[in-house]
Amino acid sequence: MSAIYILWLRQIKRYFRSRPRIIASLGQPLLFLLALGFGFGPIFQRAGQGNYIQFLAPGVISMSILFTAIFSGIELIWDRQFGFLKETLVAPVPRILIMVGRTLGGATVALFQGLVVIVICLLAGFRITNFARLPVALLFMVLVAVMFTAMGTAIASVLSDFQGFQLVMNFLVMPIFFLSGALFPLTGLPKALDVIASLDPLTYGVDGLRGAFIGLGHFSATLDIAVLSVIAAVLVSTGAYLFSRIQL
Amino acid sequence: MIRVRNLVKNYGDFAAVKDISFEVAQGEIFAFLGPNGAGKTTTIKILTTLLKPTSGEVELDGLNPAIQHNEARKRFGIVFQDPSLDEELTAYENMDFHGVLYKVPGKLRAERIEKLLKLFELWDRRKDFVKQFSGGMKRRLEIARGLLHTPKIVFLDEPTLGLDPQTRNQLWTHVKKLNEEERVTVFLTTHYMEEADRVAHRIAIIDHGKIVAQGSAAELKTQTGTDTLENAFLKLTGSTIREEEAGSIDQMRTMARMFRQKRS
After folding, report:
1. What whole-number distance in Å separates Cα of residue A49 and Cα of residue B20?
2. Which of A74, A193, B25, B152 makes an SS bond possible with A189, Cβ 3.0 to 4.6 Å?
């Protein structure tokens, strides 16, 4: 347990010490919120869908968790390149605990980032309609954070340097975000997009969050939680397995 | 303390270590010398549980590192060839992190950290981030860290690489003192023969995956009829240059050098 704690603590310390990283990672959600939120707002309203900022905010919150979580997991590549990974792998600690500690640390950082973005959204005019369901919203944020940190760790376990990082961003992380229904409603989509969106794990995170914050879920909260839990479990197991196979 | 019998390690067709045997006694400083690519680091990786041997027997304080991972890991400390510190943490935090991973209890941990950081003259800088440290300070910190969990054996894989003579001298003084005071067994590799001559009780020379000579520095000199360990080493391993792996960058550098020479 103490091993998990110290690895978690390390991630937290590293995050809060790199102020430029925190500020930089807030820029993107802000841009999406302002440019898309206010840009598409009038059209969205005219199409009879209501306030776009209300609709978009849960998507932007999910996005910031997704990016921070994936990046926290992928940070493992740094540890490998700067040599610190060796220090943890040669310690008398089962690798599974190291992986769990790292993942919890990364997920905590992503969750914190999500909370900050909620505040930004509130400042931009987002209004939470149902405060009683805030704990449910938090649960969704935790699931999304854990899931994608584990995904990042799994990816970093098989990549040995940053060469493949751009590939992962463009062909995995970006599609996960853009096809998730973070930016558009899931009703009345073309069949192909509908299928893809329903295979995207983030879809259920965004949907759950939207349901919890403003009561506008496409699926039921139970379905969202069930899907996210299963995928999170699969990704954590995959991540743990791939991490255990790292050779120096 | 360390016993290696008929150790073999193959990577596919390539034999990195070909049937080597040696022993290191408790409290000894043992130098494992050889040209680049001779099999030194592979042997260290096997002894420190990071690689499994193809065949042969390896024993570390009575344990088999290939099977009894966690038990074996508590018995040794290691300073890797390349840095392995977290530069975003302070010196003290790096030590503390290590202590927690190795389950050194809180109070004892604080005492050991203080003692070791003072010994390696880093106590005044304990609250500084490692990224602000010089190469020599980082090395000292790594050695201090490797000793925190009071290991019986310390592996030092080229610990003085890239350090100036003053720092190297000071580092070996620390290692000798440690060996004398705490009776720590030391297993080291280095390319500086005078260092091995100065600190090692016993030396083994490995080349092309085989041990070509073993004994004290004096014995090796007598055996080869040479006056320095460096000459003994060259006589035993030949003087052709070994390339571990000429990387593409090295090739490009060579090309660039040739190109520049042609123009001038």
Report:
1. 76
2. A193
